[in-house]
Fold this protein.
Amino acid sequence: MVQNHQRKIRLNLLVYDRFHKRILREFRLLPDSATICFLTDAEMKRLNTVYRKKRKTTDVLSFPSEKRTRPARLRERARALRGTFLGDIAISPAVARRNAKAFGRTLEQEICILMLHGLLHLLGYDHETDRGEMEHLELKLRRRLGLA
């Protein structure tokens, strides 16, 4: 499910809903395995402050429904979680737009990348502790999904 709780940036939710379903299918997960929610910068800053103790906005936050261990293999992990609600992904379109401009991407590409990034976190990956494993997998998946 994809929800929009901000009004500053116009979004074509149909595009993001389709991509959301596509990445869930890529992992062989059910369509209701995760929720994507577009939020204001102020709300993202509040959530980042409360949950990560960082007093600034951010582009994407993932809220797993339960603590997950680092997956041994992506396909095995996704298979084990099939039918499970993984959690919520919050995205700031305002930060995504700034990032898209800085990285030379479209806003649509940037948001899709953030959706993928958030889902990997829900599956148990953590780029802050895994010595590049998540980044390597994410780049591989970006190429496969046409986001390179």
